[in-house]
## 1
Amino acid sequence: MTQQVPIRRLVPGAAVAVLLGLSLLTAAADSPTERLTCRPRPAAADAKAAAVGDEVRTDATQRRRLLLEDGSVVYVNAGTAVKVTGERRLRVSSGEVFVDVARGAKGAVAFTVITPDRELTCPGGAFSAWVHPDTAKKSRTGVIVARGRVHVNAVEATLRAGHKLPFDGNTVLPAPRTSSTIDWTRELMASAESPLVPASQYGGGAIIAVDPDGQEAKLSLRKYHIDVHVEDGFARTTIDQTYFNHTAARLEGTFYFPLPPDASLSRLAMYVDGKLMEGGMVERDFGRQVYERIVTSQRDPALLEWLDGSTFKMRVFPLEARQEKRIVLSYAQRLPSLYGDMQYRFPAGHSLDAVGDWSFHARVKGGADFNCVSPSHDLHRSKDGADLLLDASE
């Protein structure tokens, strides 16, 4: 099953960020063994859904965020009275709300907002509705559509993204400054979102080794290549890192790498004597026992463990004296969406060590005609058939 999802912006990150235009097809993974089956991002603090019959009233200093049972989110501005009157149904008596409508299953009823003089229906999208306090006005409800479309009773034209219906008329007009009109929702959205990439002292990855004297040392980073493949609403990120042991001793170390909380690790490999050895994942205690047996026999293991919910660690042995250690790691994640914009950020962070050679390559399937810009890096744009290619190196 596929659905059309715009992918217009990939959010900036400290390492690399990409902005894209137009749209991609997204598809849910049907097989439970599919590599692109990702863990959900952590739920927001207010994840308990508002039930039918719940009513919220905000004073002049309050704003609220409501999660509804169908997955829709309602942002309630100051001085607003709103009530959940049914499934996918709200009544707004006064004030202003911004509704981010969850798309229902095929055939599901449209989301409805009732105001004192209007009925607004939206099958999927995001829109703002406010009720003018002057009861003498013939029409008291104004509407701005940020995404999707909204039908308003007694108005012939359907409102689409970037258009508005003033509270004092029935004529649909352009709304060129929609973002500024709904800017009051920004803080509510930011406070509810879990971070795309949790803070980590190992931003970008690190190998921490212990020398013969028991002192910890971080191996220097020589090469760092990022390869991203975006398709069907998923991104697969592969990181190829090369570290160097400057000491004259063979060391044992631990490789740390922070992952986005919704990512699923799909590949782990390490070069041993010039050959790429693919790794596997096993239960932690069993893996540790295997690791200890391998170290005892002086073979080259790679043990992966879940560290703290966002960071993986892999014990690495041996780190040969004055030699490189090259590690390849891949993970997949479904790209999060806000206002129909899909977001991608690579989790290197500001703590990424200085590196001799750094490069970035991204392929966006079917994206040859996308508009793109990166606020953090200068990316060279090219095409490969219907695909968009983005490259950078330092």
Note: The chain is about 5% helix and 45% strand.
## 2
Amino acid sequence: MIKLNVVEEEKRVYVDVSGYISSNDTKRFVDEYKKVTKQIKGAQYKLVVTPEIFECENNNDMRTICMTFYKSGYKKMYLVDPNNYIFNTMSLGHMEKKMFSKAVKIISHKDNAR
């Protein structure tokens, strides 16, 4: 399950990820995400992704979602991952890891997203 929540007052976009994520779930999320974020300017917002333990039907689906976030042009992107679960389980190439770590700050709690 992937949930999207835009908080105008905070200028933040929250994305919660958990459970089993099918390819259809990914497609629906990307479509909804594009529709919602079309109305906001990404450069003025911060993205905060809060994943719980999850499993994907297709590992490329997570890459698709991550690249969609990356291309949105957020001011800052945060990944709430205190145990490095995501970074350790994603199979990224050398250049992808470098891009990911440069663009996304890994934090321990969503309140640390400043």
Note: The first helix runs from residue 23 to 37.
